[in-house]
Amino acid sequence: MVGPESLSEKDKFVLEIARLVKEAILKQNAYDDVDAFSSPSKQFRMLKLVHAAYEQGIKLIEKGVSSKKIIDSIGDLFSEIIRTRYTIRNNELNKFDELEKKLNEAFKKIGGE
């Protein structure tokens, strides 16, 4: 049996992104007014955030940053991305811009830029 500890840094990060996809994109709560229906535009914006996190994280890992450091530094933003299911309505897509900006700034900070 192999645990996540034996995975490469890149694979550990991919595993965290997969969790993010599952929690933010694939799950849905039919009993929540906001999450019961997500427009294609909202789904696209959510997926765009997850993809941005993946792309930027992989670049940092290729520069030698550990997946643990990345996840520890931006874990709260991952939780915030997951909560967009409940906190951003279909007609409030502009709120994704601020979250995307926060995500980009967090990755720049990790990378020392």
Helices and strands in order:
Layout (H helix, E strand, L loop, with lengths): L8 H18 L13 H23 L4 H21 L7 H16 L3
Helix pairs in contact: 1-2, 1-3, 2-3, 2-4, 3-4
Task: Walk me through the structure.
- The chain contains 4 helices and no strands.
- The chain has helices at 9-26, 40-62, 67-87, 95-110.
- By secondary structure, the chain is an all-alpha fold.
- The model has no long low-confidence stretch (mean pLDDT 93).
- The longest helix has 23 residues, at 40-62.
- The chain is 69% helix and 0% strand.
CATH topology: Bovine Mitochondrial F1-ATPase, ATP Synthase Beta Chain, Chain D, domain3
**Subunit arrangement of the protein:** single chain
**Name of the level-1 CATH class:** Mainly Alpha
CATH arch. level architecture: Orthogonal Bundle
Our count of domains comes out at: 1
Q: Major beta sheet, specifics? A: none
Could you tell me the radius of gyration in angstroms? 15 Å
Round the mean pLDDT to the nearest integer and report it: 93
CATH superfamily: Bovine Mitochondrial F1-atpase, Atp Synthase Beta Chain, Chain D, domain 3
Extended strand count:
0
Shape: globular
- Provide the helix percentage: 55-70%
